[in-house]
TrEMBL record:
Belongs to the 'phage' integrase family. Residues 202-374 form the Tyr recombinase domain. One of its GO terms (molecular function) is DNA binding. Transmembrane segments: none annotated. InterPro entries: DNA_brk_join_enz, Integrase-like_cat_sf, Integrase_catalytic, Integrase_DNA-bd_sf, Integrase_DNA_bind_dom, Integrase_recombinase_N, Phage_Integrase. The lineage of its organism: Bacteria, Pseudomonadati, Pseudomonadota, Alphaproteobacteria, Caulobacterales. This is Integrase.
Length: 383
């Protein structure tokens, strides 16, 4: 084991001893600092030391073509000081390598959600937004500041506030799950200390009676034979689209005029009362042998994944641009409130988890009350 004062001049001249595959040159100043020269001509700076158990370790600093001798000496001195203080550079490096990338954690996160109704939504947000930015980043390199900046950038590009919030929640959930699985690097959740931005993207659209007629005429002429039934039931029940598309015959009781929804967005089951027109639509629905679904795709006999294509054609024909299927739920509430139904009852029909959700329709109730006082004033002026 040759010893020498490792300088740039010495390194430039030092080669592998004849007849050997490699030669190690140990520095005479910094204990353990060494230059390894191979017969191929390649050279590497390293530090050899004994760990706390007395086992000899070697920590690579860098190649002679990548690191100057002066820089390697400085790094060797730092590592040597760490060893003297009881540290283990090799263990630290091994721990850093054991920290997985976010993409690996995301894969485990998705696998744990497989089979749940939220799977497709979580998978889509991860694939489109989260993984392109964080997929190849080590978990310990993610922090609240960088994540908050990323979310701000998404907002500035016009992404819907609700979508940005989903990204924050999904990212944070990954770390919560990782911590429960004892995955290294998930001890600090970078999304935990980021305040939730206010969501002001609620959009209210209510059909008038005349618009509802136009829409019904358009869906009746649709290439999708089930669209008219879907739209009709959404307007008459105020149900969410997914609730109806996943509805089964076994949960519909025509005699009692009741539809049981076992699982909703709020996580609670509920019963939806069926009006006479709603019952009429249900009784006229086509039945398919062995098919449990209320309004299935006639071709696949399974629930529709989406009806956006034929819906887009219908609203264009009805001259109702921008109308969303979810707006039919708002419209159902609008028709109930403007008929004098109180907000509490409307909330129960719609399955709202709290009274605040129904409050968005309070101004409609005011319109009904306004008509009442106008009628009273007109009656008084007649005397």
């Amino acid at each position: 084991m040759p010893k020498a004062h490792l300088t740039q001049a010495f390194v430039d001249k030092a080669g592998c001893e004849v007849g050997k595959n490699k030669t190690d040159y140990y520095d005479t100043i910094i204990p353990g600092f060494m230059l390894e020269r191979r017969s191929s001509g390649k050279g590497t700076y390293s530090l050899r030391y004994n760990d706390l158990s007395g086992r000899q370790r070697q920590h690579k600093i860098g190649g002679v073509d990548d690191v100057t001798c002066a820089a390697a000496r400085k790094r060797a001195q730092q590592l040597r000081s760490e060893v003297v203080m009881g540290g283990d550079p090799g263990a630290t490096k091994a721990l850093a390598k054991s920290i997985p990338l976010y993409g690996e954690l995301a894969a485990k996160h998705l696998e744990s959600f497989r089979g749940r109704k939220s799977y497709e939504d979580v998978e889509s947000v991860m694939r489109v937004h989260v993984l392109p930015r964080w997929g190849k980043t080590r978990l310990t390199d993610m922090n609240s500041r960088s994540v908050a900046q990323w979310l701000d950038e998404k907002r500035s590009k016009g992404l819907a506030p609700a979508t940005v919030e989903k990204m924050r929640v999904i990212l944070g959930r990954s770390f919560v799950l990782g911590a429960s699985w004892d995955i290294p690097g998930t001890e600090k959740n970078p999304a935990r200390n980021i305040p939730r931005a206010p969501l002001n993207n609620a959009r209210e659209r209510f059909l008038t009676g005349e618009e509802a007629v136009r829409l019904k005429e358009a869906v009746a002429a649709s290439n999708n034979p089930q669209l008219q039934h879907i739209v009709g039931l959404l307007l008459l029940t105020g149900a969410r689209l997914r609730e109806l598309l996943d509805a089964e015959w076994k949960n519909v009781d025509v005699e009692r005029r009741s539809w049981f929804i076992p699982d909703s967005k709020t996580g609670k089951s509920r019963y939806v009362p069926l009006s006479t027109p709603a019952v009429a639509i249900i009784e006229a629905l086509p039945r398919f042998k062995g098919c449990p679904w209320l309004v299935p795709n006639p071709d696949t006999r399974k629930p529709y994944v989406s009806v956006k294509g034929t819906w887009g054609t219908a609203i264009k024909a009805a001259k109702l641009p921008g109308l969303r299927l979810h707006d039919l739920r708002h419209s159902a509430a609008s028709f109930m409130v403007n008929s004098g139904v109180d907000l509490f009852a409307v909330g129960k029909v719609l399955g709202h988890a709290n009274y605040q959700s129904t409050q968005r329709y309070a101004h409609l109730a005011n319109d009904t009350l306004l008509k009442a006082v106008e009628a009273g004033a007109a009656k008084q002026s007649a005397f």
